[in-house]
Structure formats: structure tokens, C-alpha cells
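quick one, 531 residues, struct below
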Amino acid sequence: MDVVFTLSGGHIMPLYDGCLDEGIRVVDVRHEQAAVHAADSWARCNPGRVGVAAITAGPGVTDGVTGIANAWRANSPILVFGGQGPFENLRRGSLQEMDHLGVVRPITKFCDAVYQTRRIPEFVELAVRHAVSGVPGPAYLEIPMDVFMGSAEWEEAPVPKIRCEAPRISPHRDDVRRALEVLAGARRPVLMAGTSVKWSRAAAAMNRFIAETHVPTYTNGMGRGTVPPDSPEFLNRSRREALKQSDCVVLAGTLLDFRLRFGRAIPEQAKIVQLELDNTLIGQNRQTDVPLVGNLAGSFEMLIEEMKNQSLHFDFSAWRDELRAVENEAEARAEAALHSDESPVDPQRMCRELRDWLDTLRDPIVIGDGGDIVATAAKILPVRGEGAWMDPGPLGTLGVGMPFAIAAKLAHPKRPVVIVYGDGSFGFNGFEYDTAVRFELPIIGIVGNDGAWGQMMRPQLNLYGEDRLAAVLLQRTRYDKVVEALGGHGEYVTAPGEIRPALERAAASGKPALVNVEIRQDREFKGGIYV
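---
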């Protein structure tokens, strides 16, 4: 454990004292939600480690629930220490006492309390073991105040070896052979690389498999960046067309959830080969033809090995090239918007300017925190490597931007860290710029400010009409001034030609910075674009 993210609370003060003794960095934020989000990001930025947050009792825990839930859906291995009133006063109504375990149990892999000081190390190891085993996820450990402040002799409280990586489990060899039989019978296969590729550290093995088979490959979730953008097999604008025509889909850590219409995005007659860390995720929402359960790196290695054993050769490059033509057409259609000179700024032009600036940086990490603007950015900004893009994940939690960025910058101090904000999402944890200023973390944010909750405004307009809009309009607030007031650097942009110079000034400031860009408010969707 290198760092603990926290917000000061009386129930957890002994933890800070221990961190100082052990040289563990304590990073205090302005909201418990942000502390847990930061722990989530730390785990994503440091494969093989867990992120750690400490939150005080009562409202401290309830404030952190959203962060725990987000880590639960994103499969991030984190350990959250929660405070509680003294054990000797349990059920007597201590300050901030409540049933925290009942609140967080449904959204954790491990949830328990320890009532003897000497057993704290034992419970920490147990919590971490649960967090990293199978499909990773959050663990929650409650320690009452008097137990935390208690004492024990060293020989009574041995610290067990804590392993932050689960044993590597491999699929059955017969299932690997069956998967290759299915692939041999396919003419138009597609590979979908998702979150479990990251947690399995499977990118290298998966890319060897892709290179040998030339199977067209798409990424989603934390799978983004696991396939290099210059790989001939990597595609990102033709997924819908590819799935419609596919006769075999290899799901590599990709769930058949809402992002694939609960399996309906895949033709009924198409075969499915599913690689997953845990058997409980196999066949969710749709039957799987061949399951490969285990570490995904091991699964891909076994596929490659078995191809060699059987002298099997696959070449789906002709199918890949068909899809590449679809990609090129889609990019050509988007080209005009990428160079639009209108003001307020076209959102796609804003993202293109950001893309061109990012291309001048070395190994940037980009974090998406918003709705429309992040969806647009995801289509335009290439992800140059594994871990170079982070977003909330399937829970769709707004407010992750600065908490994720703080942990990313602490984990990789030499890499530029950039946040793409919507103006709505900035309102959740924008005050964490204060944290970035205090810890001297020169993080750069760019906010697409359209004065609205755009993703909600358009369907509301379509359903109820202009005169019935409610709870979807915002002001074009000067968020740059907010950041300046917190001690950071602010830039305000109203024309597309101003974006790149503003980004460069923000970077040169050496401070946490925000570029506030007034973008066009899109109210309708016509001809494939928002207008």
C-alpha cells in the first residue's frame, strides 16, 4: 500500500498515525465520494495492486457509497476502511452510528467488521484476497473506533502475507479446442476486447492472437487501449455493421449488457466464444457456445499454442479490409465537423483540437467525465496504450474526473493527465481542484460548456416539447474562474481557433488548470449528427 485516499474523520484517525509510521502517503480530498473514486483509479493505474480509501462513519460511508458502487460495476479491486462508533457502545446510538454493512453489502465482494484489535491484519488480508479473486471488485472493512484505537502485542497480531494478485486459472484444454473449431467454421468473426482483458493483463497475448488470425477487433470498457490504434486489426467506427454481419463473436472480457443490447446486437445464428475470469459471467443474457473460464492471458496463450499444435492457420484479413472501408467512409463523413469554424464551438471541433494537442504530448492519460462530450471524444481521441483512457465504466457515474486524475497523476507523475468534462459533470467534484492545488498536481481539464444536460434535454424535447423543458438547462458558468479562485489556472474560450493556444498556456502554467470552452448546444439529431 503506497497511498490512502481519505477525508478527515475522528473514527479513522488511528489509520493516519499508522500511515505516517509506515511511510504511506495520505491524500485528503474534499468529499468521500472522491476518495473512493481515487482509490478506484489507483487500482486501474497500478495493475497488481489494490486502491485504498478510508472514510469516517455515518455520512462518511454514505458519501462513499457511489464510489464503491462504481468500482463494483467496473470490477476495480479496492479496499475501503470504514469507521464506526465504539464497539462497547454498539446499538446504543453513538455519534454517526448506523448499519454501514447493510448498506454496502450488495455492492462489495467482501463486507465485514473486525471487533478485536489483534485480528485487524487477518481481516485486511481476507478483504484483499476477496477483492482480487475471480472478477475483481471492492472490499469493505469496518473497524469501530475503540478497536482502531486499541493495542495488541506484535506476537498476538501477526501480519500475514498479502497477495494482491489472484492465482492464474486456465480453461480446460477441450474447451480451447472447441473454440478453435468454431473459429475455423467462421467467415466473418469479430473480437470484442473488454474490461477483463485489463484485469487479466492479457493485452500482449491477445494481440499475438489477433495478429496471427487477423480477426477484426473492437474494444470497450477498460479494454480501450489494449489494442494499439495502429494495429491493422483495430477498428472503432464500424462495430454496428460488423456485428450485424458477424457469424462468430469472441467476447474477451466483454459482457452482453446494455452496451451490446443484452446480446441482441449479435445475430441469432452467430456463434459466441466467451473468455471470462469467472463462470458466473458466462452466458449472461445469452447462451454461450464455448466458454473459456480463467485468466484471459492464459486463455489466449492456450489458443495460440493449440493452433500451433494442430497446424491451424486463420486469415480473416479480407473481412477486416471490408470493415476498414466502412471505417474510412465514416471518418470522411465526420471530417467537415472536425474543421468547423462556428462559434459557439462545434463539440467535434473541440475534440479534434484536443486530439491534435495530445499528439504532441508523451504518453498522456485522458479521463472522460461527462455524457455527450465524452461520447464524442471517445470517437475522436485515439487511445495510445493500455491505461491511457479512463471513464466511469458501466455505472456511468459523473464526477470521476478530478478524483481519477489525482490518483493517475500520483501513480504516473511524469505523464500528462487530462480530463474531458461536460459542464454538468464538473459540478459534482470540481472542488477537487483544491486537492490538486494542495498536492501540486498540474492536471489539465477541458470542459465542453453548452449550458445544458444535453443527453437528457434532447429526449425531453422529443417527448414533451420546448415549453415543457424541466431540470435540464444550466448556465454557461465561468468554471475557469472557479478554478482560478481555488488557486489554479483558468482559460475561457469562445472560438475554435482559441482552443489550442489556451491548452498550451494551461500546460505552461504548471498549475492545475481548466480550459472552459463554450460549445454549441445541440438539440436535435439529424442525418447522423447533432444540430
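Residues 317-338 form the longest helix (22 residues).
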